[in-house]
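Forgive a beginner's question, but would it be possible to get any protein sequence you like and the tokens describing how it folds?
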Amino acid sequence: MQLLLIHSDYIEYEVKKSTPVAEKIEESFKKGRLEEALTAFIAVEKVDESNVEGAISKAVEEIKNVASQVKAENIMVYPYAHLSSDLSSPKAGVAVLKGIEEALSGEFTVKRAPFGWYKAFKISCKGHPLSELSRSIVPDEVASGSESSSCLAPVKEEVVSEALKAESTAKSYWHVLTPDGTLHDATNFDFTGHENLGKFVDYEISKKRAVEKAPPHVELMRRLEIADYEPGSDSGNMRYYPKGRLMKSLLENYVLEESAKVGAMEVETPLMYDMNHPTLKKYLDRFPARQYSIESDKRQLFLRFAACFGQFLMNHDMTISYKNLPLKMVEMTRYSFRKEQRGELVGLRRLRAFTMPDMHSLCADMDNAISQFDEQYNMCISVLDKIGIKVDDFEVAIRFTRDFYNENKDFITNLAKTVDKPVLIEMWDTRFFYFVLKFEFNFVDALAKASALSTVQIDVENAERYDINYIDSNGNANKPVILHCSPSGAIERCIYGLLEKEAMKAEEGGVPILPLWLSPTQVRVIPIAEKHMDYALKVSEQLNCRVDIDDRDDTVGKKIREAGREWIPYVVVVGDSEVENGTINVTIRAESQPKSPVKVEMTSEELNARISSEVQGMPYKGLCLAKMLSQRPKFI
């Protein structure tokens, strides 16, 4: 169960519309208000179903504890599904909420908002240090001798790789490397001017991965109709609405195009593999990831968490000459699967099913691998920059063995010089994994949680493990050094990073906006009246981009506000003056401030030229929804 506890001057709600799982309520239950209240926003989760009474008891204990601290006598129990991606069944959810209400009613004045209804609510948070608190509650397991234990399915023991076990016990030496080549102790480094790096260092060293509340992008991904949780699937498996699918498709195409420019050949490999295949079994033990496992035809299979398996098996069967090196292959894995810890799953930040561009390069030797590593490091900077995540938006982590560092100090220092800022170093005395060198570009979000985007690793094991060879100029077989590269990191994480970045910008008083080439609607045309519709259609046909028309029966002001809420980059309003002059009145979001929109009168040709220059060289797809807004369904 997830709890968000807000001490408020008041909380009031009004139901608007029922959902298919709404509980039946009387008229008096459709509105509610409490003064001087502790509001408990609650998301009941699947894990709570194993011990409903235990979940209720623990929740009541937490709520009572906070109520006593803030001296609250009134409590609002408010169902709030958005706190979790792993919701319980509606029946269990209602049972838990009613149980909490009943248990609290003896000591407090309690109101409960109805379950399964869309509701409007207003709340006035008091703003003192204890006025906003979050709690994660996991009920104790049902005892093996209890009545309900007989209906619980046996749980198969999770398969944990040896590398993952090693990672949890590995001795890490943490440093900050400055561009002048100095290694500083990370715990004593002065992060003044590099506060974001300080947050990242704290996150890495503390290893606190669990999320206690939803980061801003979760609300944005739903409001912008990009993606949402899928209650009918496993946690960390999302649904993507047309706008989200368009954004993903554009990102996928862009990363594949950039990979092709550096000579990578696109391939496709299976999603599942035999866990007992002798070569794959050894690799599983060397990769720090948890697997989804399934059974089929009496064989134990696992779902891939990267494209390595298929590409390396393919490399094994190929005839490769030194003339082919460096040999590069890339796959857009829709999907890769990792059984991430449940408490770490939130929105698009960390998923169990994700889209990973995975490129592998076979290099003749370590010198060639280091040269390719450097090229791909710079490629990743460029890829993220075009996506909209700049060097100042991410923090660099470089991880290696001490021996590798001592042999390649100048090369590693140059990586810090390239980004011209301090970077985090993790060093090991012993190599625990298959790589000797790895970097990641990490985005730090509004909750100070970090997520890796681009990465490259130098692999010194798997050519031997998979028996991958190339023939040198003397006709001898040699083992290549392999690079693993994801130019952007998971596609979903790119969207997460963009949304979090813009949420933080808005918090600082800026105007949030997506890169133009990724915006589902690039231009919205708003006719002032019905008589201007023909001209609006004409303008839309003159524009060479994703353009839609707000033909709904609303006021112009409401249409403009709605376009702002959707982050539309260019909003074109047409009326009598524009029809008469053959021009358009354009609000340019990228140049506007919250209360100072920038409006420019121009021609359709001039707007075309402006848009063309902004999206030059980037992939393009047409509208993913009906052109007329009146014809579009609502997904949220």
